[in-house]
Amino acid sequence: MPDDKKMSDAVSSASSDKTRDQYETYPYPARNPEDEDKRLISGSPGNWDEVVHFVFGGRDPSAQTKSGKIKILVAGGGTGDALVMLAQQARDRKAKAEIVYIDLSESSRAIAEARIKRRNLEKNVTFVTGSFVDLASKYGPFDYIDCCGVLHHLPDPDAGLRALADALKPNGGMGLMVYGELGRTGVYHMQEMMERLNAEAGGARRLNFGKALFNSLPGTNWLKRNPFVGDHINGGDAGFYDLLLHQQDRAYRVDEVFDFAEQAGLRIQNFIEPMRYDPTTYCSRHDVLDRAMHVPFRERAALAELMAGNITKHTFYVVKAKNKVQPPQPSPDAIPFFTRLDGPSLARSVAKTGNIKITFTGLSVTRTLPAASPAILSRIDGKRSIAEIYQTFDPKPEKYEFNAQFAVMYSVLCAANILYLHLPSKK
Ligand SMILES: C[S@@+](CC[C@H](N)C(=O)[O-])C[C@H]1O[C@@H](n2cnc3c(N)ncnc32)[C@H](O)[C@@H]1O
């Protein structure tokens, strides 16, 4: 093979010019750096507490590295949502984090840099313009890599994920998001229509043509009937373009996500929210569940995706296949804490109904919690261990009964991404 052919293959597997041009013109998501004064955008993957839970077994990651620092890569960081969240959450937790941001798009980087400056977080962040497929190893190895909504835009996503895996430390892990096929029904119909109509190649002309086409579609069109995607309606021009007009874009079914991780030597710890990938969330018939539940995790998750129909993206955490780390389980010294809910108000609402209602992309699921849940929930402060929470009861419940109720309550709330456990660092 001539050298110039090898060269162009290398460039095309790393990124496509159309992708870079799109994000130069429409940095995604649209963000105004001044809004950093008002709010912190947080989400998955990359929420610090989730990362500690799924990647580091519930123990402080900086205490697990020789340098006392955790090294993070935000690959395809866009306008900076994950970067800003991780940098701010690390500071809030007094964790030492060194973060590298890599993106193809200069204009996205400018917004991400301005957001970081606005929060005075620039000291520990390095900004790089280019493809992480080529550059990740040069700046690594990393303890944690965040790559959200990016790999499905690469000409060769498998090679992209292998490049990230090569830049990961043996005990590190990644938070990833790739599109889900079923929940995006209609999106690829729109992309195909654009293709068949020989639509403009890029920029404002492509956007205007795409909007004209979308506005002409009848109510029977699958995209018009899909209530689970909304970026084309709520996300401004950047959102419309990103959802419907992308020219390098694919989606995954659960089986493909497992294959994707495995070919890169990675193991899936879990999806977010874990409950969405569990058939019992959707079905209570024993005759069906008898067959659905006695199969490997991959099969259960694939079935759950088919049952739900509303999974628009797969958010998941991976570690190296050989890494045996598991998320923490309840034990006397584990410290429970809420990830994104206000504990006292959850305790009050569970006390009234005995239930918790969780809504995932248009589907509400109600779960009954054990009787002691309100009393336990009201005592969770992110500082007390489970053993200490038990000690605050007067009179004390039977210990076996308390632990059993805690375990059932925890399994529901953890699967809903509401309650996690923190373990003290190993001495
Ligand atoms: C949909 S945006 C997602 C941005 C961000 N991760 C988020 O979730 O908000 C995709 C980003 O990936 C970047 N990107 C695509 N391919 C890349 C590559 N090979 N190397 C670096 N960045 C890339 C694009 O420039 C764009 O900013």
Features:
427 residues, alpha/beta, 19 helices, 11 strands, binds S-adenosylmethionine
Explain the overall architecture.
The chain has 427 residues and is of the alpha/beta class. It has three domains: 3-179 and 252-320, Vaccinia Virus protein VP39 (Rossmann fold, 3-Layer(aba) Sandwich); 182-245, no CATH class; 335-422, no CATH class. Helices cover 43% and strands 17% of the residues. The strands form three sheets. It has a seven-stranded mixed beta sheet, with helices on both faces. The protein has a two-stranded antiparallel sheet with strand order 8-11. α6 packs parallel to α7 and α16 (343-353) runs antiparallel to α17. The protein is globular. It starts with a helix and ends in a 5-residue tail after the last strand. S-adenosylmethionine is lined by residues 14-15, 19, 23, 28-29, 76-78, 81-82, 102-105, 108, 131-133, 148-150, 153-154, 242. S-adenosylmethionine (SAM) is lined by residues 14-15, 19, 23, 28-29, 76-78, 81-82, 102-105, 108, 131-133, 148-150, 153-154, 242.
Structural class, from helix and strand content? alpha/beta
Give the CA-CA distance, first to last residue.
55 Å
Model regions low in confidence, pLDDT < 50 over at least 5 residues: 1-12
Small-molecule binders? S-adenosylmethionine
Radius of gyration: 23 Å
Task: Give the topology string: H per helix, E per strand.
Answer: HHHEHEHEHEHEHHHHHHEHHEEHEEHHHE
CATH architecture verdict of the largest domain: 3-Layer(aba) Sandwich
Oligomeric form: single chain
Q: How helical, in percent, are the residues?
A: 40-55%
Number of strands: 11
Q: What is the number of domains?
A: 3
- For CATH, the homologous superfamily of the largest domain is named as Vaccinia Virus protein VP39
| Proportion of beta-strand residues | 15-25%
Mean pLDDT: 92
CATH class of the largest domain: Alpha Beta
Can you tell me the overall shape? Answer: globular
